């Protein structure tokens, strides 16, 4: 592989499976949540990372949903259940409102072209959106499986929540921490469930930002769901919550039934990209505590830098300060202007040393040394060649297992198993 596509990585193997939203490893198995139905979840045996084997695949009969996120603790696997193409489909809710206002002001019905202009879609999309409005969606939530037998996952329950359903989430031995829509709130909030009985999980706590409350259906302080919980990650008695265009929050979750905010920081503006993930770095650096934040390159805004990584001094949660940022230049990937997203998306969520492995869409995987949080430095990269007829890679998620095997998942197609520091 040319030097411009690889530095300091060795490719151990590649599986050309359908694209995924999340990849995780438990024991000797890699679990992939796929982006689009009918593909649900693939379980891959990586006991020999140079010869991965598919152990099983869960297929969905619900083409209106996807299960693109997955986590595993012991023999329990949990996947989200979320409306596929949710942001596009939600536009259908604006059709009736626009038609009513149009009739009142003009005494006639609007054309599909006029509705499309109002919604920001194509006129040819309107029949599809009308169909979505008529059908609605009530499948959102999550599913729990018994995966003791990796070749035969067994569905234990489908727990419904509300609206779009669950997006990204965290879990430990006792609780599930779901980012989901719920009645009475605008945008996703945190809902914690006990799964002591995995066939019947029970809600035990909630957290939300006050501005999200909308119990009387009045318009909230914040417009739409631009400011919402993307997901939270639990570390001990803390949860680190990425809140999209509202920055991030640090939560005290020692009592899961009474979660409270102990730190808050919003860098929008000047930040233009939404906050996707935040996690604390292990230990202290220069006697201080730091956290890493990964923004998501979503809808790029001309004139702005692509989404990138931030490092914050979080020693005092009441006085959070930016320390540095890390960027990847468009010159660093031959696919930067090929039409896909170019910018940060997600780093591995368990950091044990000084290197952050970060999925950077068409810039592939970036390995970033954060031993000096004021001067993050790239120490390696791996840009997969696109397959399946795609013109560019879209590296979406990464997980590093205890052996050091780096699992890199592409949003379109392909799982790469890599070794870092091997060339």
List the SSEs and their pairings:
Elements (H helix, E strand, L loop, with lengths): L5 E2 L1 E10 L1 E7 L2 E6 L4 E7 L7 E7 L5 E2 L3 E4 L2 E8 L2 H5 L2 H14 L5 H8 L6 H10 L5 E6 L7 E7 L5 E6 L3 E6 L8 E6 L7 E6 L19 E9 L2 E7 L3 E5 L7 E6 L9 E6 L9 E6 L13 E5 L7 E6 L15 E6 L7 E7 L3 E5 L7 E6 L12 E6 L4 E6 L2 E8 L3
Brief overview, please?
This protein is mainly β.
Neighbour order of strands in the largest sheet: 1-27-26-25-24
Number of strands: 30
User: What's the CATH architecture of the domain at 84-138?
Assistant: Orthogonal Bundle
- Overall mean confidence score, pLDDT: 94
Radius of gyration over C-alpha positions, nearest whole angstrom: 22 Å
Strand count, sense and closure of the main sheet? 5 strands, antiparallel
Strand content range: 35-45%
- Counted by DSSP, the helix tally is 4
* CATH-derived topology of the domain at 84-138: Arc Repressor Mutant, subunit A
The gross shape turns out to be globular
Task: Give start-end ranges of low-pLDDT stretches.
Answer: none
Explain what this protein looks like in three dimensions.
The protein is mainly β. The protein has a domain at 84-138: Arc Repressor Mutant, subunit A (Orthogonal Bundle), CATH 1.10.10. It has helices spanning 86-90, 93-106, 112-119, 126-135; strands spanning 6-7, 9-18, 20-26, 29-34, 39-45, 53-59, 65-66, 70-73, 76-83, 141-146, 154-160, 166-171, 175-180, 189-194, 202-207, 227-235, 238-244, 248-252, 260-265, 275-280, 290-295, 309-313, 321-326, 342-347, 355-361, 365-369, 377-382, 395-400, 405-410, 413-420. The strands form 7 sheets. A 5-stranded antiparallel β-sheet has the order 1-27-26-25-24, with no helix packed on it. Strands 7, 8, 9, 10 and 11 form a 5-stranded antiparallel β-sheet that branches. The longest helix has 14 residues, at 93-106. It is globular and about 70 Å long.
